[in-house]
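Subgroup meeting minutes
Present: P.N., E.W., G.H.
Scribe: E.W.

1. P.N. recapped why we're keeping a running log of single-chain structure predictions: easier to compare across weeks, and new members can see raw inputs and outputs side by side.
2. G.H. added today's entry (572 aa).
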Amino acid sequence: MIWWADLPARAQAERNAVADLTDRNTWLLNVVWRLAANLQLAADFDFEIGERTIPLTLVYPDFFPDATPSILPRDGVRLSGHQYGTAGELCLEHRPDNWTPDVTGAMMIESAHRLLSSEQETGEAAPSDHRTLPAQRSRGAILRFLYSCEVWTGISMVEVGQAAEAEIQEHNFAGFYAAQLSHIGPADAPIWTEQRKRGHGAYKLRAVIAHLPEGTLKKCKTFDELKLLLETHGFGALATELSVASDGVGVILFDGIDLQVPMVLRKDGSPLLINYETVFSELDGVRLDPEYDRLAAAKIAVVGCGSVGSKVAVHLARSGVGSFVLIDGDLLKSGNLVRNELDWRAVGIHKAPALATRLKEVSADCIVTTRTTVMGGQESGGTLSATMRDIEECDLIIDATADATVFNLCAAIARRAEKPMCWAQVFGGGAGGIVVRLRPKIDPTPLTARQRIEGWYADQGVEWPDDGSSQPYAETNGAGTPLIADDADVSVVAAHLSRFAIDILARPEATIFPYSAYLIGLTETWLFTAPFDVRPIDLGERDAWGVDPEAGDANALKQLLADLLPGKSDAG
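Output recorded in log:
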């Protein structure tokens, strides 16, 4: 957009204001208006401050007056400490963080004159209201060393004048390297350990901490400067060791006031120093409900690591679930990428172990067991039995397959082991979906619940549109034509299913959901009158969980033991 073409009256008012400022002040000279690159309105002008003539340019942005203009040195020189970059625009009283559309370019020129003239008169930098965030300071840094109050406390445990071995964990992402202190002291007997661990893909680097006397740290740009600093303060042996080290060594220099972290490498046989940008990275407050603390001890079975299951697993990992059993016999295909939590790196890999790697990236401490069993497929009885035992040992079973055969197996495990179960299905065509949670001895058993849901559908008397969309809980399995649904459709259903799962784990004695089944509409179709039309389903009275005893079971058990354990049938 060209703002001055859309707002010509404002543009003329800007020119008039600058002209009036020129008439009233002898320090503003030689104003020349022009169109700069991309048709930006600009004004060149000079300041006379003392015996200096300072050439400057005022440039109006494309989104003026909703965005602030810039004033830059026209000859590319450093004019003030209140400047972005070596010769960039001046940081003035009117900035993006306090800008209002009634501020004019003339007011920006006045602000620039106050800044430069005050510094010229006093010979000192003007008082600063400029606050640079850590993220801004580290923009150009390829290497970043992250530290927190906890890390600072750990480093402080090393006595002044002493060196301690340590370990750094580093990972590379998007062309940047971020490192943090992993532990101090020997790996088998550390004196301090970082609680927040790196996830999958982080690698370990040797490091050493040198605790210098207070206030003696000087920023080292070369290895010779580092060596001199260490030798000056009694770390001559460490300096010699670094001089001949064959592998990269991180050096954490600390004097109780400041911190510097150089990495010593070797290039052409000589030691080379590369500095990390130190970035304070403290946790900025609790982000999860304290009730979520219970999730750390939970073990969740996610059966089906497709679009819904992959998203639910990651939601739960982010929420603090400590252990997972992931089950899926399928490979990730390129076509799955439109909805799956995984990316192109996992194409051709079994979904379960690929998703395990993703969970480790999100939550390094979580424990993940994977099974590539095809539930209900042509597997050996032993393989299926072992997989079902893994599911039985979990605190919650999540069926994310929309496969009737798999559902029946999960339902049998949940009923017999009296374990809560959740499931979901995404409807085709972006119509929405259904989420269900079942609690032992509170809700109906899974098979009963499913029958009642299908009966509820029939009672509504509204046929599903005959347009090729998936039925609300079709009896067919998921091996047919893929659903037409985008990532947003799937994400809505997966998020609701995750909320059900978290509710069961975090609030086992209560619930924030009055119903155990909800239809979620995302478009006007079938029962739904509008997007975000949600319909609860009352599942009715519970039925019997567990294994129902049959007449004669006690005698049959005695006979079975007598046959299998002869001579011991009377024991106990």
